[in-house]
Write a structure and sequence with these properties.
The complex is a heterodimer. By secondary structure, chain A is of the alpha+beta class. Chain A has helices spanning about 10-35, 50-70, 110-115, 140-155, 185-195, 200-215, 215-225, 235-240, 250-275, 320-325, 345, 360-365, 385-405, 415-430, 470-475, 500-515, and strands at about 5, 75, 80-85, 90-95, 100-110, 115-125, 130-140, 180-185, 280-285, 290-295, 300-305, 310-315, 325-330, 350-355, 435, 440-445, 450-455, 465-470, 475-485, 495-500. In chain A, strand 9 (about 280-285) and strand 10 (about 290-295) form a beta hairpin. By secondary structure, chain B is of the alpha+beta class. In chain B, about 50% of the residues lie in helices and about 25% in strands. Chain B has helices at about 15-45, 50-80, 120-125, 145-160; strands spanning about 10, 80-85, 90-95, 100-105, 110-115, 125-130, 140-145. In chain B, the strands form 2 sheets. Chain B has a 4-stranded antiparallel sheet with strand order 1-2-3-4. A 3-stranded antiparallel sheet of chain B has the order 5-6-7. In chain B, strand 6 (about 125-130) and strand 7 (about 140-145) form a beta hairpin. Chain B is elongated and about 65 Å long. The two termini of chain B are about 35 Å apart. The chains are: A alpha+beta, B alpha+beta. At the A-B interface, strand 18 and helix 16 of A face strand 4 of B. Strand 18 (about 465-470) of chain A pairs antiparallel with strand 4 (about 100-105) of chain B, so a sheet runs across the interface.
């Protein structure tokens, strides 16, 4: 194993394209919406066009930065840490101990694979960005880095058969056996796309842009002869409804077809997205590491030490339940996964899709000792519904008030319907609330249409808090919340509402005791 | 008398004086700012005298209400704050309307701070801040402790909370 790593010359090109990608969207917007003053024919020998000026202003510094990075970036492997040195003018030296490295991730898109390069991201527990983003190095350097981290970091319990401290750089530890936990074939990927329904935002944006540029209005007016199918169609229809008139059946058909068409189109795009992003999804357990690999154009290979997993969340939307599936995500300390958007979330998936019947076995293999069987589920306070129904009814009233702004007092007719629906939703939601706590794990499930279940091993509990709002105090209930490392703001947590106060106090005491009895290791 | 005896303790009563002073300062600054802007608006003629006197009455009422709250609230808040240190960790109770009991196990404490502002130094008080690896309770603070008590609690909490071989943050 070499002791120093330097960037490959191709990194100049890769780095440049990465910088330009950041400007691509504003540039595109400028090209579409702006008005280039002079054509490109005048670029040399005449007045340069605005576009050329901007391009030059962007490309030159980016290119210089890329070259500077190639010349200055180097990584030195020491016994217990790696030193990352970068920068010519503004020099930076970063020490990253191997023991603190949680994830060594390899990203390869089409160009990386054509040239045999890889982009490596090194993540530790602290901060939200990777400690090192290495663009680009040859593939052999990735194995090198993984070996350094594994041997000296001691993350994989089964990695080194001999004493890890005695292993010299010359010897490579034997590769531990890999156990495949999950593999998603094409059919499952299509199902993932169908269920997850990504891309609504993108499609909405594209549609909006196209509308702005004019072709959509022309398209619609060409498809329908009458001009009354323009943008005010839905509003007109609602007003007609509220006035007591029944709109023309053709209009209803058009609206219904439009909505269905949009939903179907979004689903198709989502399925295509899933196939491309998660192609050949493979999850393996190798010693003390979880290795996941996926992607068609951009291939991502990510490794998560099992010891870093803080919580496991199982999610089931309506579609999941209809198809008998579930999705599993984990939170690792340092890799804060935002609610549901953004690339970081995919990187925390351990199972985008899984059969519900295989769930207990999967969880048991994921984290030994933590499983769904043997959990004694308990409900919340019997009067919880009386509390939960009040905010639901309040929301229904708010919604009716909003509706009244659009269609007048006729919205009051909707109030019983909305109120009934809200109460039913509250009732089902409360019925499905449940929690379980034993010596090793605490679990919480919630949700009615869209269900979530979170498991937290007691060794991962940081702080336990018991809260009472004024309403809680009046009804003698309390809410118990378990704090873990790396929890995102929107992630499902152990946050149990409507517990009887005495039970809440006892639960807090039990969890605090179990947490105190164990040492927390990163 | 060991500090870690599992008894529930109140904060030092001098913290009420401290918080009152702070509240009065804030009220004074806010009221002065409002008064100055009112005077300026009246003197430059932007505001007719009738409105100005009405607003002045409003200002007086507002300042009085704020001052009353700043005076009364610390005593109420003090009654609802307490802490308990034992072998397992530290538990803090606080909140008047929204009540909370926070339990930090000793083995989860990453490091601790004992901080003293100028007013706190004058009254011999200190604030204990406990850092964990959690997300919304990454930093748990307990103010209004006598300074030596804060130091003793920190000494009790820290040795067992020292980082293991996994490395500290």
């Amino acid at each position: 194993m070499q002791s120093e790593l330097r960037l490959h010359p191709l990194s100049i090109l890769f780095g440049l394209s990465k910088s330009l990608k950041q400007f691509a969207l504003p540039l595109l917007a400028f090209v579409i919406f702006g008005r280039p003053s002079v054509g490109p024919s005048e670029a040399f020998g005449g007045t340069a066009g605005v576009l050329e000026t901007w391009l030059t202003l962007l490309i030159v510094p980016a290119a210089l930065h890329s070259v500077a990075r190639y010349l200055s970036y180097r990584i030195e492997y020491l016994d217990s840490e790696m030193i990352i040195r970068s920068g010519l003018l503004f020099r930076n030296e970063r020490h990253v101990p191997y023991a603190r490295i949680q994830n060594v991730e390899a990203v390869r898109n089409v160009f990386h694979r054509m040239t045999g390069m890889v982009e490596i991201r090194v993540e530790t527990a602290s901060g939200r960005e990777p400690e090192a983003v290495i663009t680009v190095v040859p593939l052999a350097a990735l194995d090198d880095m993984r070996r350094h981290v594994a041997v000296r970091g001691g993350t994989g319990a089964g990695d080194a058969a001999t004493d890890a401290a005695a292993v010299l750089p010359a010897a490579t530890p034997p590769a531990p056996p890999a156990e495949t936990l999950l593999h998603l074939p094409l059919r499952d990927l299509l199902l993932v796309g169908f269920i997850e329904n990504r891309g609504l935002v993108i499609i909405g944006t594209i549609y909006g842009v196209l509308w702005e540029l004019g072709p959509m209005a022309r398209f619609w007016s060409r498809v329908f002869d009458e001009g009354s199918y323009g943008s005010g169609m839905v509003r007109d229809t609602l007003q007609q409804l509220s006035a007591g008139l029944w709109p023309a059946p053709e209009r209803l058909a058009v609206i219904a077809a439009g909505v269905l068409g949009l939903l179907l189109f979004v689903r198709l795009v989502s399925m295509a997205w899933a196939v491309v992003t998660l192609h050949d999804f493979r999850l393996e357990r190798r010693g003390g590491d979880l290795r996941s690999e996926y992607g068609l154009l951009t291939r991502v290979a990510s490794s998560i030490p099992l010891a870093r997993i803080q919580t496991v969340t199982v999610r089931q939307t309506v579609l999941h339940r209809l198809t008998g599936r579930a999705s599993v995500r984990v939170e690792t300390a340092g890799g804060v996964a935002p609610g549901g958007q953004g690339a970081t979330v995919e990187r925390q998936w351990v199972a985008p899709l899984l059969r519900a019947s295989e769930l207990p076995a999967f969880l048991a293999r994921l984290i030994p000792g933590i499983g769904l069987e043997g959990l004694a589920w308990q409900g919340v306070h019997p009067r919880a519904f009386r509390r939960a129904v009040k905010p639901a009814l309040f929301l229904a009233c708010l919604f009716t008030a909003g509706l009244a702004l659009v269609i007048g007092t006729r919205s009051l007719l909707f109030l019983p319907l909305l109120g009934g629906a809200a109460s039913y939703a509250a009732w089902r939601g409360v019925k499905h609330l449940g929690w379980a706590a034993d010596d090793d794990v605490v679990a919480f499930r919630s949700g009615w249409l869209s269900r979530a279940l979170t498991l937290t091993p007691t060794v991962r509990i940081q702080v336990v808090s018991c809260r009472q709002s004024p309403f809680d105090r009046r009804t003698r209930m309390a809410r118990v919340r378990v704090d873990t490392a790396g929890a995102g703001a929107l992630s499902h947590r152990i946050d149990i509402p409507y517990l009887p106060h005495e039970i809440a106090v006892r639960l807090q005491s039990h969890l605090a005791e179990r947490a105190a009895a164990t040492a927390f290791k990163w | 008398m060991s500090i870690a005896d599992g008894q529930w303790r109140s904060l030092d009563p001098r913290v009420v004086v401290l918080r009152r002073i702070g509240g009065v300062i804030v009220t004074t600054v806010l009221a002065a700012g409002a008064l100055v802007s009112l005077l300026v608006a009246t003197l430059t003629g932007d505001l007719p005298l009738v409105t100005a006197s009405g607003l002045a009455g409003l200002w007086a009422a507002g300042a009085a209400a704020l001052g009353w709250v700043a005076w009364r609230w610390p005593a109420i808040d003090y009654r609802h704050q307490s802490y308990c240190v034992d072998a397992r960790g530290i538990e803090i109770r606080r909140g008047v309307v929204w009540r909370e009991v926070v339990n930090v196990p000793r083995s989860r404490i990453q490091h601790t701070d004992v901080a003293q502002g100028p007013l706190e130094r004058r009254y011999g008080l200190g604030t204990l801040v406990v850092y964990t690896a959690g997300s919304d309770h990454a930093r748990v603070s307990l103010g209004g402790l006598p300074h030596d008590v804060a130091l003793r609690i920190r000494e009790h909490l820290l040795p067992a909370g020292a980082p293991g071989d996994g490395g500290a943050v």
